[in-house]
Design goal:
Helix content is 41%, strand content 19%. By secondary structure, it is α/β, with parallel strands linked by helices. The longest helix has 35 residues, at 513-547. The protein has helices at residues 26-39, 53-65, 91-101, 117-124, 128-145, 161-173, 190-203, 223-232, 254-263, 265-268, 279-290, 311-319, 347-356, 363-379, 385-398, 441-453, 513-547, and strands at 7-10, 43-47, 82-88, 107-114, 149-154, 178-183, 211-216, 237-240, 339-341, 383-384, 404-411, 419-425, 431-437, 458-466, 475-484, 501-510. Strand 1, helix 1 (26-39) and strand 2 form a beta-alpha-beta unit. The strands form 4 sheets. An 8-stranded parallel β-barrel has the order 1-2-3-4-5-6-7-8, surrounded by 8 helices. Strands 11-12-13 form a 3-stranded antiparallel sheet. Bound molecules: 3-methyl-2-oxobutanoic acid and zinc ion. Residues 15, 182, 184, 215, 217 line the site of zinc ion.
Amino acid sequence: MRQNYLRIFDTTLRDGEQSPGASLTSAEKLEIARALARLGVDVMEAGFPAASPDDLEAVRRIAIEVGNPAPGSSGIYNHTPVICGLARANKRDIDAAWQAVQYAAHPRIHTFIATSPIHMEYKLHMSPEQVLEKVREMVAYAHSLCEDIEFSPEDAARSEPDFLYQVLGEAIAAGATTLNIPDTVGYSTPEEFGALISGIIANTPGIEKAVVSVHCHNDLGLATANTIAGLKAGARQAEVTINGIGERAGNTSLEEVVMTLHTRRAVFGLETGIDTTQITRVSRMVSNYTGIPVQPNKAVVGANAFAHEAGIHQDGMLKHHNTYEIMRPETVGISQSRLVMGKHSGRHALKVRLQELGYELSDDELIQAFDRFKVLADKKKEVTDADLEALIEDQVSLSEEIYSLDGLQVTCGTIGMPTASVRLRGPDGAMHVHAAVGTGPVHAAYKAIDAIVGVENDLVEFNIHAVTEGIDALGEVTVRLMAQNGTSHHRTSPQSETLQSKTYGGYGADTDIVVASVKAYLAALNKVLISRSHLAEQEVSKTELMTA
Ligand code: KIV
Ligand code: ZN
């Protein structure tokens, strides 16, 4: 690999999915994985397979479907990304990771253990010598299964540098080929983090055999600055997420690092394999599926990132765009919404356009998409790329449903009480109808749904926006709600006393914003129900194991 090539390691589906409310269905994970491959990431951390059988299965599907060149594919991916699974430094986790990633053309196991005094003493209850021994044993074990091993000393930024050099040296000796240095709690400053990386490169035995990677959290808003400092010190892999999502304040955002290196090439002299024109599209997809909105002033992907409001700025822009613009919107894939299709366009044209946008649909999915496209094209004169993306994302969100929307009618306005009648198809195929009044049509519809579905929850976020300009635009709604991820009647063993409140996101798109709101709410409720049923299945198999 060239010395000036920076590997982009995307962890949206692992560290990103650990964000509150980011729980994704397996169909959504697969769609994001495809979009990441198209974006050109070098390594994709597809999940934490030991977390649950569903997590393992989701990583395995990604390894099979995205981690291999598709036979007879239209060649949409520039290369086949490495598919990586995370594992704590124990055999059970490592086995689970290998079980999931082994199907990829380029599999990787990423194993980690904490090395800071506070983590070793209070979390692991292990001495530094015991941690060293674990690293030797578990990296060697992982390497006996898989050639490509990444090792991370968790909380490296608060670890003793000399101990860190020793741990990393042992990891290399045991077979690790990538050494990832995490600032797990986002505590470092750029000077400190750069010095940490320089120290590691200067003092770790065997370091020339490995790639040094950086993984920064954003608790002080310094993740991108710390990552860039690490790259300047010699790291050649950056671990990032789309939109910077992740635990607490998130991870380093992919778009910020990539566009910094792209815009300031002369300063850094580093290149990546990222197709920057895909950035906006993947950003929207991740935001829609996770239900986590992007702040309007977010660098590169925020709604205002390329908006010029002040008169003096607009005047300058008209004279020369470089006056106030350091990147062209087209470079990150923001184009004027292009007219692509109309109501006379046929199924083949839709298939070709969706392939160009990166969607690989099965025949059944295409039939469904075409029916929905026709309905949309009847309502809306011009169907743009952004409309097609919303349409497909809405379809993917609907693909794992327990309750589905069969009918909705609302009355609202200044006279009378806002009322909604909702008809849902339930898990048994039966229709359930309920009507309710509320403070507005959305409130009334949500109350009617609650009466049918019966999932107690608190709506913590509701966002609505138009996909394109124009009065006939599609409306997109994302919601986030808090609900318990289990119910008392699902408890089958003492181990199941782990009821937790979790945040779930949902997405819906429609030309009718009340319909979009209902779809988003139902998508989130379906995620609660799916996660409860998976938990219940796990409890049953645990009980069966215990009684066998
Ligand atoms: O932040 C962290 O330390 C991690 C490790 C598992 C790499 O995510
Ligand atoms: Zn992390």
